């Protein structure tokens, strides 16, 4: 990344805030506009989230990479596209942004800003869903970066929009966001005591995706390394 670290952290915090404000806000709006229709409410949230991801990645990708997710930052560091020493600052910026986003969503709908989640999300099915969702997300990102970087925004938006529907957990797929959704008593929340199970499953899914990406799209050896590795012929 050529941008100064502070500018990148501001971009990560800003993007994270808008992302979680979109998720929580659309969840509140969907529930208000379609009481009793869980499917319609989920459609509202999934389309809003997918669209916002496309916009944020297009907008902030050139600044910070628009990771907006510790699992993505770890994957990029493992792939040599982010310095390991920058991972912790990125994660802190993402956490701060997500907290601002959840508070902003509450304030916009005139709800108490400070809340604790009441929605239970636990069990083997939910944990498996989070592992699968995060595996797919990281694989999509690393695969697109390797093969067609320009399609990353659309690919991520489409994947998350779909993952809302095929996972039992509605695809949190983001450790920092999972932590901060514990501070929302809306349907988007998760009980604080259930956060750890989600985060562990997400990190396992991310690690498996990193390994799979290295298998499918191995990074080429730089030309200089190839030349150094070749035995030199002695002059006749």
List the helices and strands and how they pair.
Elements: H1 5-33, H2 38-64, H3 70-78, H4 87-108, H5 124-147, H6 152-166, H7 175-181, H8 195-216, H9 223-229
Helix pairs in contact: 1-2, 1-4, 2-6, 3-4, 3-5, 3-8, 4-7, 5-6, 5-8, 7-8
Search tags:
Glycerol uptake facilitator protein; single chain
Report on the structure:
With 236 residues, the protein is mainly α. The chain contains 9 helices and no strands. Helix 3 runs antiparallel to helix 4. The relative contact order is 0.16.
Write a short abstract of this structure.
The protein has helices spanning 5-33, 38-64, 70-78, 87-108, 124-147, 152-166, 175-181, 195-216, 223-229. The chain has 236 residues and is mostly helical.
Q: Count helical runs.
A: 9
What form results from the Cα inertia axes? globular
The average pLDDT value, as a whole number, equals 94
Q: Class, according to the CATH hierarchy?
A: Mainly Alpha
Number of domains: 1
Q: What is the makeup of the main sheet?
A: none
Number of strands: 0
- Determine the strand fraction and express it as a percent band: under 5%
Structural class category: mainly alpha
Q: Helix share of residues?
A: 55-70%
Mind telling me the C-alpha Rg? 19 Å
Instruction: Indicate the CATH architecture.
Output: Up-down Bundle
What is the string of helix and strand elements?
HHHHHHHHH
The CATH fourth-level homologous superfamily: Glycerol uptake facilitator protein
Distance between the termini: 47 Å
What is the CATH T-level topology? Answer: Glycerol uptake facilitator protein
Low-confidence stretches: 221-236
């Amino acid at each position: 990344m050529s941008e100064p670290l502070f500018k990148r952290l501001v971009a990560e915090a800003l993007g994270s805030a808008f992302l979680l404000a979109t998720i929580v806000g659309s969840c509140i709006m969907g529930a208000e506009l379609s009481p009793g229709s869980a499917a319609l409410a989920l459609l509202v949230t999934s389309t809003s989230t997918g669209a916002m991801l496309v916009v944020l990645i297009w907008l902030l990708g050139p600044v910070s990479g628009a990771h907006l997710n510790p699992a993505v930052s770890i994957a990029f560091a493992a792939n040599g596209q982010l310095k390991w020493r920058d991972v912790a600052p990125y994660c802190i910026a993402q956490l701060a942004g997500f907290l601002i986003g959840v508070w902003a969503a509450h304030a916009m709908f005139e709800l108490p800003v400070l809340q604790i989640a009441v929605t239970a999300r636990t069990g083997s099915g939910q944990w498996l869903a989070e592992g699968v969702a995060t595996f797919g997300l990281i694989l999509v990102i690393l695969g697109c970066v390797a093969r067609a970087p320009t399609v990353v925004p659309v690919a991520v938006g489409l994947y998350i929009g779909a993952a809302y529907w095929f996972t039992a957990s509605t695809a949190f797929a983001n450790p920092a966001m999972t932590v901060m959704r514990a501070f929302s008593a809306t349907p988007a929340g998760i009980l604080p005591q259930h956060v750890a199970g989600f985060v562990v499953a997400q990190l396992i899914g991310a690690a498996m995706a990193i390994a799979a990406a290295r298998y499918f799209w191995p990074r080429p050896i730089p030309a200089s390394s190839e030349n150094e590795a070749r035995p030199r012929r002695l002059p006749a």
